[in-house]
Amino acid sequence: MNDAQLLTLTPEIKDQLRKSSQDHKFTHGHALILCGPTGHTGAARLAARGALRVGAGLVSVATPHEALAENAAHLTAIMLTEVDTPEALTATLMDARITALCVGPAFGIARAGAFLPAVLAANRPTVIDADALTTLASLGFDAVHPACVLTPHAGEFKRLFPDIAANIDAAAITGAPHSKIDATRAAAKRAGCTVLLKGAETVIASADGRAVTHGAVGGRAAPWLATAGAGDVLAGMIAGLLARGFTPQDAAQTGAYLHVEAARVVGAGLIAEDLPDAVPHVFRALGL
Ligand SMILES: NC(=O)C1=CN([C@@H]2O[C@H](COP(=O)(O)OP(=O)(O)OC[C@H]3O[C@@H](n4cnc5c(N)ncnc54)[C@H](O)[C@@H]3O)[C@@H](O)[C@H]2O)[C@@H](O)CC1
Ligand SMILES: Nc1ncnc2c1ncn2[C@@H]1O[C@H](COP(=O)(O)OP(=O)(O)O)[C@@H](O)[C@H]1O
């Protein structure tokens, strides 16, 4: 069933992206990006910068003590909070002004296993990416809630949903072949939340069957997105939009759209660090 819509930014979404003169920083939420151990902190910072650039009012990196200095040496507008254990995370999340989480980029698979139950128990809008997806493949989806957004690339999707992924490549025995859209829709239904399957064609589906496809092809091609860390920035952008109050489906769709537009602003030579800094150009072109 390929009845997914093509992704565009509606006037309503553009309005939601704007900031008004009456706003203050807490109007636009606080995103908390969980960071991995020393030597593996860059991905969380990429995500954090993505979250801040799409307009989250505040962004903090939750860092283990051992990586505090490493992170502090690289961050200015983004804040740091020390979180060494799942219990410390739960205590940090007593602050109801933290409105979205992002877990996974270079977080470590074992570490994700330890932290995911506390992350999910917080019941906050949450992007689950990278190592946290690999962990989820063994944990299962019981604790996943509807405010989650899973952002797998094709390899992670195969780990998380091996049977569904196998259908994409399999020849159809009866009826139409199983498309990437069918697969993402089936995955979202199984996980009980929004799933964004990355790639030059990105599909975003929700548990209720809504699905949108976004092709970075033809006039909107963005092949330089095939670079390390581009997905970490996307995870952060979605977390930033969740923090601002976007629904999971809208945050994933809008994040995917802005991510490709940012890549197109930079063009050839793009590296992941460039993506967040291209967002103001995208917003200007959108008339925000
Ligand atoms: N600057 C940084 O600190 C970066 C950290 N990263 C972190 O590195 C860790 C490992 O992530 P990876 O995704 O590299 O490794 P993974 O091992 O999770 O996945 C890569 C494997 O999946 C396969 N695969 C199949 N389809 C794929 C697709 N469409 N895209 C990518 N891989 C596909 C690849 O062949 C490869 O064997 C994560 O924690 C990630 O967040 C990466 O995001 C790169 C940048
Ligand atoms: N050829 C391509 N055309 C358009 N977008 C791409 C292409 N290759 C990768 N991307 C996008 O770049 C990002 C890569 O994310 P991911 O694979 O998680 O990389 P990383 O883990 O290194 O951050 C995704 O948003 C994906 O959709």
Can you describe this structure?
Homotetramer. One of its GO terms (molecular function) is ATP binding. Pfam families: Carb_kinase. (6S)-NADPHX binds at residues 43, 153, 232. It is a single chain. With 288 residues, the protein is α/β, with parallel strands linked by helices. It has one domain (5-16, 28-285): Ribokinase (UDP-N-acetylmuramoyl-L-alanine:D-glutamate ligase). Helices cover 44% and strands 15% of the residues. It is globular. The mean pLDDT is 95. It binds ligand NAX and adenosine-5'-diphosphate. Adenosine-5'-diphosphate is lined by residues 130, 153, 198-200, 202, 216, 222-223, 225-226, 228-232, 234, 259.
Unreliable spans are: none
Order of helices and strands: EHEHEHEHEHEHEHHHEEEHHH
Distance between the termini: 36 Å
Largest sheet: 10 strands, mixed
The DSSP helix count reads: 12
The proportion of residues in beta strands is 5-15%
The helicity comes to 40-55%
Number of domains: 1
In which order are the strands of the major sheet placed? 1-10-9-8-7-6-5-2-3-4
CATH-defined superfamily: Ribokinase
Oligomer: single chain
Q: Could you say what the CATH architecture is?
A: 3-Layer(aba) Sandwich
